[in-house]
Specification:
The complex is a heterotrimer of chains A (501), B (315) and C (290).
Chain A (H helix, E strand, L loop, with lengths): L1 H16 L6 E6 L14 H10 L4 E3 L5 E3 L2 E6 L5 E6 L13 H13 L12 E8 L2 E6 L6 H4 L10 H7 L13 E7 L3 E6 L13 E6 L3 H9 L5 E3 L6 H5 L4 E7 L3 E6 L10 H4 L1 H9 L3 H9 L4 E2 L22 H10 L5 E8 L2 H15 L3 E8 L1 H10 L4 E6 L6 H8 L13 H12 L3 H18 L2 E6 L1 E7 L2 E2 L15 E2 L1
Parallel strand pairs in A: 1-10, 1-11, 15-16, 15-17
Antiparallel strand pairs in A: 2-3, 4-5, 5-7, 6-7, 8-9, 9-10, 11-19, 12-19, 13-17, 13-18, 14-18, 20-21
Chain B lengths: L1 H28 L4 H6 L5 H10 L6 H13 L13 H36 L4 H15 L2 H15 L15 H35 L2 H8 L4 H29 L3 H7 L4 H10 L3 H29 L1 H6 L1
Chain C lengths: L2 H7 L6 H10 L1 H19 L35 H37 L1 H16 L2 H12 L3 H28 L2 H8 L4 H37 L11 H8 L8 H28 L5
Helix pairs in contact in C: 1-8, 2-11, 3-4, 3-11, 4-5, 4-7, 4-9, 5-7, 6-7, 7-9, 8-9, 9-10, 9-11, 10-11
């Protein structure tokens, strides 16, 4: 009898010491991430995974203000050419090596020098980075660049273990060793990425999840079905058409945030021979096209009112939005008048789009809207890889492309419309715009920057190399027992403070 | 027999070479630049050039091909452009998934298709035949993705009986593994069942009208024996060949079904690789599925010979 | 038994009249014929019917259930589904028939040659066929369609080419069996030419599995067109095809089930139609069946 009792108490104590149930969070993603190396990767879902895996020097809060993460505070020199950061102490990487100024230097240098690095343009303004003490680093810039801090909230500012990076080189992505709240366990391509809680995380007290599994489920209907069936705890990018169903489901929570990105049409202004057509040459035709679109109707029909109409690279609720250029209402008469002025009754346009059902739906609507103004739009659907290389090579007339957006206004504008911009596929080139955007980059005073961006917006809104259509919302759906999630305009999933009961 | 198999295996070599050349020519045929796709916003020409060199995309395609063949002979299929993982690792990860799905789907297909086919043949031009036809053809004409989503909504969301999607390795949790595969295997199996049913019916009809069956009937052999022993065994021949062929096709993966049920098999791997222009993966997987297909063909032919006395004598 | 007798014992070659009579007597084949004729006629007279414009959008009538104004409802951007179904029949039927036509027209002769002559011709044809068969269907189709450029016609060519190897193989296998039959040996020994032997003695006797396969492949082809348009390589929006309609409908299965129902039902009926007809033809043409 005593033995049984002893056994029972023993068993009970064993059961009590083990947490009742380890909290595991299963998150459905729209795509599979690419290589898991912050220096090399490019996908949006990859960034979502990094938010749990790799801490950055600085982060952004839901109001898009830059807040401390691995750097506790920072200071610009008066001329904006030096950035000094104080670092958090007692932080270790997942391989237990210490995080310090030397590690930051190694990371920035890796992003700048690793031949495979895709962070070179983002860090192009950095001339030198040095450790000024054990826990202080100083960035010396070639020219003042106020967007640098925002770059450091993303992949360029992610800190990986220098030891692991040196050992694995370009193959780091097969076994990433970072500094975030969760460490890498395993990855099966197109199936799952598994992370587990890192007990020595500097902010471990705010982490209530023991294991995170990211599951790529491309079909939005199936992603939602998985959530409803209980196989997922949360998902990103819910289809807008399913928003109502989630809101009405007593077992689910709905969360959204208007993103920092935009949806837009890119005109081939001067990229190769195909730019040589009336639409690329005459801005009045582009203005007519823009006026013929009923942006609110598009938003209602395609996105069930979850997105917002827009005409600038920043959504209307952004502090960077120029209120003097409101989103235009549809004006068919004015559009026709502009067409006539430009000497066209009708105009044929080839419009290249990705073969994604939502984009196809949206562009068919726009196609029929602009038809009333006399534009005969021919839609050409292609898969993403083709679209990308055609747009780069200039083999397009008008192309639809979306940008997931960056926190700093520079990231939504500079590389797209400056003459030598890295992804300026329209090859629009206006020295005035270049000057304004370069000046905006040089200043660290937001009031000055705003003034420059507004001035640029006036020009761009007239020239219309890029016709902005609107801003999509990031939509998440969660099970009711998952609490503490804060939606953020950057579309990331931050697990600090998230609980599962 | 062994010489026959040996000869066939030798013949597989030219076929595999044709397959690999075809897989390689995709690199030239398809528009789109893999490096651009993997570089994202980084357009630094030095980086792009380095990556092109690293993956030997600047070499003439012929050099690339022989370099690749050399690698294959050493057991190295290269690395994925998109994730940096070795292609061999990817194949090793997906092969068990694909085989499990193929076996389970084939089991469904045979269990549904063959009996219905026999029934339809025996009851030719009766109501039973018509209904059997309609049932079988519905599996073929209902698109996989539609059937898949309907099943998920009904079985997983409404009834909560099976996991909605995903994959569990068989040896880590056999029960859950079978559960997750049940619906996708059924969806694929149903579509294949139509093909099997139609061919079973056709083959049975041919055999049932043959002289020796008439003779057997005339001799008073029971109808049941006529159908099951005399006819079915002979009618089985084309069915076996077909089964092996269909199985070979299944090894290449069932793209849309894998997509819906998020099964990480060959189909999804290869289509994603084509879209990302991840050519190393395309080439490796095509070679591997091609070899599997050829093997299944050989199995089909060997079975055909073993079961067909006339062919055996000819060998 | 003399050779002459052997040849006379051979199954009678196809007599068109008899086949047609047998086909007419076959009720299920007639049903198949009626279904197919119905859709083909509909597709042809589409421009004459008092239909709504299949491309006209109306964003005050998004995803409306079937009603008096829109008999089959409206789609995700307010277009009339009935009109799109009828216009879409053109694309889908063409996709089915033409691609199978291409597959048969190229595949069957190759299979006949390969099986009948054997030797190195057979060797080459078989290897290439095998290689094509071993390529996953969608990959071949995607590659061809991407190479030729996206359009409905190119999608049909791509589907046809991908389906072709199956016909080569099937024909070849049948020829190998038939070749050893007494009546073929007999025909050869009395010195009939290859062409005559192939067309008169072999082709009619390998027909039935080919018909069955062709009627099945039409179904696969219609659905393959759907997959290709989904990948942007088939019918280009906003023009309708049943396949592309189904693809769009996939995202609205719970909100607007009718969007999937109509194209789904139409594909189903056409598939049944072709298969019933295929059966009937098979019976009518089968020389062994009295």
């Amino acid at each position: 009898m005593k033995k049984v009792q002893l056994l029972a108490t023993l068993l009970a104590s064993v059961l009590l010491t083990i947490p009742v149930s380890a909290a595991e969070l299963r998150i459905g993603l729209q795509d599979d991430a690419d290589v898991l190396d912050p220096a090399q990767s490019r996908t949006f879902v990859g960034r979502i995974v990094y938010t749990s895996l790799c801490d950055k020097l600085v982060d952004v809060n839901p109001s898009l203000e830059i807040v401390p993460q691995l750097a506790t505070d920072w200071k610009w020199s008066d001329d904006g050419s030096e950035l000094t950061m104080n670092l958090r102490q007692n932080v270790v990487f997942h391989d237990e090596t210490p995080f310090n100024a030397a590690a930051v230097v190694a990371n920035i240098q890796r992003s700048q020098t690793l031949p495979e690095s895709r962070r070179k343009s983002e860090l192009a303004s950095v001339a030198k980075v040095e450790a000024t003490s054990d826990y202080q680093v100083k960035f010396t810039l070639k020219a003042p660049d106020s967007s640098l801090l925002a770059q450091l909230t993303d992949r360029a500012g992610m800190m990986v273990s220098p030891k692991a990076a040196a050992e694995l080189g370009a193959n780091f992505g097969n076994k990433p060793v970072c500094s975030g709240p969760f460490k890498f366990v395993e990855r099966v391509q197109q199936d799952r990425i598994v992370l587990e809680k890192f007990p020595h995380y500097w902010n471990a007290a705010n982490i209530f999840i023991d294991k995170v599994t990211f599951l790529p489920i491309p079909d939005s209907t199936v992603r939602l079905a998985n959530l409803q069936a209980g196989d997922l705890d949360m998902l990103e990018r819910l289809a807008a058409t399913d928003a109502a169903a989630v809101k009405n489901d007593a077992k689910l929570t709905y969360a959204d945030a208007i993103g920092v990105g935009y949806m837009a049409l890119y005109t081939n202004i001067a990229n190769g021979p195909r730019a040589d057509n009336p639409f690329g040459k005459d801005k009045r035709l582009r203005q007519a096209f823009s006026l013929a679109i009923d942006r609110d109707a598009v938003n209602q029909v395609v996105y069930e009112g979850t997105s917002v109409a827009g005409n600038q690279p920043f959504p209307p609720n952004s502090p960077w939005f120029d209120k003097d250029i409101p989103v235009p209402a549809r004006d068919i008469d004015k559009a026709k008048a502009l067409m006539k002025e430009a000497g066209h009754e009708t105009l044929d346009i080839d419009l290249q789009i990705a073969n994604n059902p939502v984009q196809m739906q949206m562009m068919q609507i726009i196609q029929s809207m602009v038809a009333e103004a006399g534009f005969n739009v021919k839609l050409k659907t292609t898969e993403f890889a083709t679209l990308l290389s055609e747009q780069t090579a200039g083999n397009y007339q008008l192309g639809r492309s979306d940008w997931s957006g960056r926190v700093d206004p520079d990231g939504n504008l500079h590389q797209f419309v400056t003459c030598k911009g890295g992804i300026n596929d329209t090859k629009y080139c206006n020295p005035e715009v270049d000057t304004l955007l370069n000046d905006a980059r040089k200043s660290t005073d937001n009031a000055v920057r705003k003034q420059k961006y507004d001035a640029a917006a006036q020009i761009l809104n007239d020239d219309l190399p890029i016709i902005y259509l609107g801003h999509q919302a990031w939509i998440w759906a969660l099970k009711k027992n998952v609490t503490g999630f804060i939606p953020s305009p950057d579309g990331m999933i931050r697990l600090q403070g998230v609980k599962k009961s | 027999m062994y010489t026959y198999i040996g000869k066939r295996l030798l013949l597989a070599i030219p076929t595999l070479i044709i397959i690999s050349i075809f897989a390689f020519s995709l690199q030239k045929l398809l528009p789109g630049d893999p490096i651009l796709a993997m570089a994202g916003e980084e357009r630094d020409p030095q980086v792009l050039e380095f990556l092109r060199d690293k993956y030997r995309l600047n070499d003439p395609i012929i050099y690339q091909y022989f370099y690749w063949v050399g690698g294959v002979l050493r057991g190295d299929l290269g690395i994925s452009l998109r994730t940096n993982q070795p292609v061999l690792t990817l194949i090793a990860q997906k092969l068990p998934v694909t085989i499990q799905l193929a076996v389970m789907a084939m089991a469904f297909a045979l269990a549904i298709g063959v009996p219905i086919g026999i029934l339809a043949a025996v009851k030719k031009n009766t109501m039973v035949d018509y209904i059997a036809n309609i049932v079988a053809l519905s599996g073929l004409s209902v698109p996989n993705f539609w059937m898949g989503i309907m099943l998920i909504l009904l079985v997983s969301v409404k009834l909560g009986l099976l996991p909605a999607s995903g994959y569990e390795p068989f040896f880590s949790n056999p029960l859950r593994s079978l559960q997750t595969m049940l619906m996708p295997a059924f969806v694929i199996g149903l579509a294949l069942a139509a093909t099997l049913m139609r061919h079973t019916r056709s083959s049975m009809l041919t055999v049932l009208s043959a002289d020796y069956i008439r003779t057997a009937r005339a001799k008073g052999v029971s109808e049941r024996a006529v159908i099951l022993e005399h006819s079915f065994r002979n009618a089985l021949l084309p069915i076996i060949t077909l089964t092996a062929l269909l199985f070979g096709e299944l090894l290449a993966g069932a793209v849309l079904t894998e997509q819906i049920f998020t099964i990480p098999g060959f189909g999804k791997l290869i289509v994603d690789a084509v879209f990302n222009r991840d050519y190393a993966v395309v080439q490796g997987v095509v070679l591997c599925t091609g070899a599997g297909f050829i093997l299944m063909n050989l199995v089909a032919d060997v079975l055909y010979i073993l079961l067909n006395p006339r062919m055996r004598a000819a060998l | 038994m003399t050779m002459q007798q052997v040849i006379q014992n051979a199954p009678p070659t196809r007599a068109q009249n008899r086949a047609w009579k047998k086909l007419k007597a076959n009720k299920s084949a007639l049903v198949g014929l009626v279904i197919i004729t119905f859709f083909i006629v509909l597709a042809i007279i589409a421009p004459l019917l008092p239909l709504a414009d299949p491309l006209a959008t109306n964003w005050s009538a998004i995803r409306k259930a079937p009603s008096a104004a829109h008999w089959l409802g409206t789609d995700d951007i307010g277009r009339d589904i009935l009109s799109r179904m009828i216009w879409g029949a053109r694309a889908s039927l063409m996709a089915g028939v033409f691609s199978v036509g291409i597959a048969v027209a190229i595949g069957v002769p190759l299979g006949l040659i390969s099986g009948y002559f054997g030797g190195w011709i057979d060797m080459i044809i078989s290897r290439i066929t095998e290689a094509f068969l071993a390529m996953p269907f969608l990959i071949t189709a995607i590659a061809l369609a991407a190479f030729l450029g996206p359009s409905l016609v190119n999608a049909m060519i791509a589907i046809g080419f991908s389906a072709m190897p199956l016909f080569v193989r099937l024909t070849r296998g049948q020829v190998l069996t038939v070749k050893t039959e007494d009546y073929v040996e007999g025909a050869r020994s009395v010195g009939l030419g290859h062409y005559r032997i192939i067309t008169r003695y072999i082709l009619p006797n390998v027909f039935s599995p080919l018909l069955v396969q062709a009627s099945l492949t039409i179904a696969t082809a219609i659905i393959a067109e759907a997959s290709l348009s989904f990948l942007g390589l088939g019918q280009q929006p906003p023009s309708p095809s049943w396949g592309s309609m189904l693809n769009v409908a996939k995202n609205f299965l719970s909100q607007a089930p009718w969007m999937a129902m109509w194209p789904g039902a139409a594909i189903f009926l056409v598939v049944i139609g072709f298969n019933l007809l295929g059966d009937g033809l098979r019976d009518a043409l089968d020389p062994r069946e009295a």
